[in-house]
């Protein structure tokens, strides 16, 4: 079993790599060949018994996609993207990386399919950014994609391409609409949504964190662990059971910021909660109000995708996976 | 007022040209300059007092889009596409014409916008093919686009691009999801949906027509006259009122084939109905069963788009517009 991870140096890519290196099978088979690709050189994983190729490459450059599939990987995880803020500011770069890069990959596979019948599983990381306000709560599986960012537009277009290429039999694609990932490990970053993680991650290690929005803001979350679980399940799932609608809103936890804070209090006590400093920011609040508060995710649940069922469990996953079990 | 019609040689393009030539204003102003473009040379309209440019050109060829907007038309009607059957059979041609051609036009406008602030109204002809079975009846405005053809995929992608380019202010775009147009003038053609028109148009002039499906098949129709009306209204409408969701399912008439035939009987009598010959075709029937039976079109109606309210009216429009008032 040969797996290719495009976007391997990102947070989900690194965690997915780690799970595979620690023995997670794909389609019931051990992964003995792992190809890792990103625009920054992915690190060679330690302690892996199989073959690893690490490549620094940009999918949107001519010839890259063909090179990536030359060894005909069985499963391709396509996680590569520039993030929402950057795609919004740099219109051309966003379309080049997030749309043309994906299309180049899909086209390279199509040509290989026509040449020799190659037909890999393609797992595409999409996003809840494909929907745009005004939004119902919860958002049903059949709600339309009317994104309000170029990033969401590019993801929605890739979803459509993925379905069409799959319908034609060029590859077996499945798109995974990831909730906001919480608790993101690492340092606080400049993303507008960063506070959802900051207000939990920082207090858990005795650091202050800034909360720029009211506690009534409701949003849609899943843990990094569940996000990797979605990817692995998407690689395994029987696509006949999924049918032609290949892009699935994943399950998650819908919670208000207030509910996040109460979960933190239950898990780590008032001393942690006291480290949250309120600095209201009208612009961030306005952005958050336009985001998805939660999805039904009925189809994904029926198809066996699972997430945490409470914010307590999301915090617990972070403590186990990032803090060696101790908050 | 300078209008550009891309896809001017097609059925809707010719009828739109005709309405403009006969004096239909755009945004309250007389159209004194009309540019007609298609892959087959559009005919120069007779009796037009303004300036006409007719150009045979393929939007998907490098440099064409820039040439089309060099004179900075105020309103651009983008109707050019290869049809569903051809886009399905010739995957590369479908994407080149229906996706890359549209994107080339949008990109040319964006570059002109950045260069000199050019910001035209762009009216894009989309299609009910953006939705795919299983479908509710009626289909709500917020139903997702999960097309089951490459043509529908390409139209859905262009809708997303149109919204995003409009949101960035590169142009003022609006997408019009056309119902199946009935009664199509001209000769019977090979399209699977052709019978919806054939069974009315041919008997109205004393000719036989073949009905390949059961009378229970329900579908979504509008007249050529209403389709042109949609385009003209889309050129005029206040886009602030439309908001960021720029792609609208148009109103139409939902009717079973049986209801179509009863309307024919009321308008033209049993002698016309007797000319319909039943030749059941399982493949065409299966295709029709997966098509949209009808849309709510609530938003479009609220925004002033109007269609016929019965099949009798659709037949009457054909008699007036194509048969000089006499069936």
TrEMBL record, chains A, B:
Keyword set, alphabetical order: Carbohydrate metabolism, NADP
Keyword Glycosyltransferase included in the entry's annotation: no
Chain ranges of the NAD-dependent epimerase/dehydratase domain: 3-207
Leader sequence segment: none
Keyword set includes NADP: yes
SUPFAM superfamilies the record matches: NAD(P)-binding Rossmann-fold domains
InterPro entries in the cross-refs: DenD, Epimerase_deHydtase, NAD(P)-bd_dom_sf
PANTHER family from the UniProt entry: ADP-L-GLYCERO-D-MANNO-HEPTOSE-6-EPIMERASE (PTHR43103:SF3), NUCLEOSIDE-DIPHOSPHATE-SUGAR EPIMERASE (PTHR43103)
Protein name as it appears in the record: NAD-dependent epimerase
Organism: Thioclava sediminum
């Amino acid at each position: 079993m040969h797996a290719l991870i495009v976007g391997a140096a990102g947070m989900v890519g690194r965690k997915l790599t780690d799970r595979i290196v620690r023995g997670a099978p794909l389609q019931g088979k051990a992964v003995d060949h792992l190809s890792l690709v990103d625009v920054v050189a992915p690190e060679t994983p330690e302690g892996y018994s199989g073959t690893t190729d690490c490549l620094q490459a940009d999918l949107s450059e001519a010839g890259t996609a063909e090179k990536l599939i030359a060894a005909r990987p069985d499963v391709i995880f396509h996680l590569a993207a520039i993030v929402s803020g950057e795609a919004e500011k740099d219109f051309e770069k966003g379309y080049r990386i997030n749309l043309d890069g994906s299309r180049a990959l899909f086209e390279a596979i199509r040509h290989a399919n026509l040449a020799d019948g190659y037909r890999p599983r393609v797992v595409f990381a999409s996003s809840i950014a494909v929907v745009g306000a005004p939004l119902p709560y919860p958002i049903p599986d059949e709600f339309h994609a009317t994104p309000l960012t170029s990033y969401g537009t590019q993801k929605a277009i890739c979803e459509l391409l993925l379905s069409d290429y799959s319908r034609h039999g060029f590859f077996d694609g499945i798109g995974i609409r990831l909730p906001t990932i919480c608790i993101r490990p690492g340092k606080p970053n400049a993303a507008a949504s960063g506070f959802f993680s900051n207000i939990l991650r920082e207090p858990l290690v005795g650091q202050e964190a800034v909360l720029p929005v009211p506690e009534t803001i409701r949003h849609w979350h899943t843990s990094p662990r569940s996000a990797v679980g979605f990817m692995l399940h998407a690689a395994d799932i029987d696509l006949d059971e999924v049918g032609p609608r290949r892009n699935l809103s994943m399950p998650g936890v819908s919670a208000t910021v207030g509910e996040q804070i109460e979960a933190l209090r239950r898990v780590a006590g008032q001393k942690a909660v006291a480290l949250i400093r309120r600095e209201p920011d009208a612009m961030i609040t306005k952005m958050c109000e336009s985001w998805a508060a939660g999805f039904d995710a009925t189809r994904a649940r029926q198809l066996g995708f699972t997430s945490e069922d409470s914010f307590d469990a999301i915090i617990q996953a972070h403590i186990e996976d990032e803090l060696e079990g101790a908050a």
